[in-house]
Write a structure and sequence with these properties.
Blueprint (H helix, E strand, L loop, with lengths): L3 H29 L4 H11 L12 H13 L2
Helix pairs in contact: 1-3, 2-3
């Protein structure tokens, strides 16, 4: 709970953390050489890359969002 300003600041911080994490993963995503989210999940699992929430496995939706974000920021 908070006001609109604190919610806005929290969103900005979350978005900044996500962008930083995506940039860290960019070389791995590019080396996967796939546009298939399931294949990227398998690649991340093989390399032991934790999901954004720290879980051992990535799900396809998170992988798709990451690929889309990386493509948009290229």
């Amino acid at each position: 709970p908070g006001d609109d300003r604190s919610a806005s600041l929290a969103r900005e911080q979350r978005d900044l953390r996500y962008a930083q994490h995506a940039e860290e993963l960019r070389p791995i995503v590019e080396s996967a050489n796939t546009t298939n989210a399931s294949k990227l999940c398998e690649y991340f699992a093989m390399l032991g890359v934790p999901s954004p929430r720290g879980k051992a496995k990535w799900n396809s939706a998170a992988a798709r969002r990451l690929m889309k974000f990386i493509a948009m920021s290229a």
